[in-house]
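Much of what follows relies on a compact textual record of a protein's fold. A record is reproduced here so that you can trace the correspondence yourselves:

. . .
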Amino acid sequence: MARGKIFIKRIENTTNRQVTYSKRRNGLFKKANELTVLCGAKVSIIMLSSTEKLHEYISPATSTKQLFDLYQNALGIDLWSSHYEKMQEHLKKLKEVNRNLRRQISQRMGESLDGVSFEDLRSLEEDMESSLKTIRERKYKMIGNQIDTHKKKVRNVEEIHRSLLHEFNAIGEDPHYGLVDNGGDYDHSIIGYSNGGRGILALRLQPNHHNLHTGSGSDLTTFALLE
């Protein structure tokens, strides 16, 4: 039974395309090896897949460079010289671009202005004014960000200050605020602000004399605030 003719076109399915590539590549390399063994031919095959993977077949005891040299001798051309000339031409263009950039930088620093035409000077001035405008806008934006950050810090400090004043005012209104009888031999002391937060007041930590003389249970004794 004869096989149907296959219509050659790109395989859209990625997996099927890769499988077909691998099978046909191996078949091609097999045929190249048969030519080398049967006929003594020197064969070199270089392939790049759609995924940019390199596959290469070289006849045994042969290198790619040797085959390229044989190819050049057969055609009477020098591939390396042609490639070198292209590289030199590209290098020449890069040097010209580098010279132009250096000249532009020097002119923007107020140097190398001799021989520059009036139109070029005016164009240079416009470019520098545009650059200066962009720099100023960036500077003002940074200053604005710093001011906003400073304002936030000030608001946080003010909130902390109001909270402390509220707490210290509560301490001033209640002389027993924060004092706890723990049954020990020492009275508790507190530190706080009084008179609207204008002075620092403290309670001394002193032995409870009543407990020392009588040996009785805990007795809470308060002392006058000292400036």
Remarks:
- The helical segments are 14-39, 64-75, 79-108, 118-173, 209-214.
